[in-house]
Amino acid sequence: MAASTARVSAQAWSCVGTSFSATLHTGKSLCNGNYRLTMQTNGDLVLRVATTGRACYASGTRALDGASATFHKNLVSKPWVDITSPSQGRIGRVYGAHTPTTYGTNASVNARGEFWIGYKKVGWC
User: Of the CATH numbers 3.40.50.150, 3.40.50.300, 2.90.10.10, 3.90.550.10, which one belongs to the domain with range 2-124?
Assistant: First the structure.
């Protein structure tokens, strides 16, 4: 029963996995355990506790017509996620990090409620 409930909840949140290395579109979420990172229709990228809805991290970006979050792998500098709106262009950027020997290849949410970009924790519950 619990697995079935979890599956229904994940579908309701439009979960696309636990990480992304391309674009997270409006209304889509990364879900892992009791945590979800959602690109909201108001343009804010928000990490929440799934069972309570409590917000733990927000990008602070706003858009009138939705937004998307796009991961950028950068071999020269830090990886980042750009938040863009169709009418406003880039409305925010969140930077991650590499390790000295390994490049960050995605943005992710883990089962501890941590939002990572590459090898940098940028938000947590």
Answer: 2.90.10.10
